[in-house]
Write a structure and sequence with these properties.
Layout: H1 5-18, H2 22-39, H3 43-60, H4 65-77, H5 87-96, H6 100-128
């Protein structure tokens, strides 16, 4: 299915209302990728699901495509050591004899730091027009 100009225009209007400030567009993409990674922990599956939408979206909100890919990479990579829907991660915890709740309590500060750093790097990439 190819997006039509009217569909892209409608999407652009919705996004302008949601992300009124340009800098928040890149951060919004990052947040969406982080949330989708909890549902689709596979990197290639997430790319196949989101990038056909995020690419034209990035053109509409004036975010470079490279920054969009960076938002995908950070959104996919950070939560891989935290996501309970990831089979290999849960298998590793089971082999180590560690409950997921215990792991979350231990890893949570690091995850928060990484998410904040990821947001800062996305913002910097957007501001400098990362290509």
């Amino acid at each position: 299915m190819t997006p039509t100009n009217q569909n892209l225009y409608n999407l652009h209007n919705i996004l302008q209302k949601i992300f009124g400030i340009k800098e928040l567009s890149a951060i919004g993409m990052y947040i969406v990728q982080c949330l989708i990674n909890y549902i689709v922990p596979s990197g290639s599956g997430q790319a196949a699901l989101t990038m056909p939408i995020m690419t034209p979206l990035s053109d509409l909100v004036h975010v470079t495509r490279q920054t969009t890919v960076l938002a995908f990479q950070f959104g996919d990579g950070i939560s891989n050591i935290f996501t309970p829907t990831s089979g290999y991660f849960m298998a590793g915890l089971a082999l180590a004899g560690i409950s997921w709740i215990k792991w979350v309590r231990w890893i949570w500060p690091l995850i928060v730091i990484q998410y904040v750093l990821g947001a800062m790097f996305i913002l910097i990439a957007h501001i400098i027009g990362y290509q």
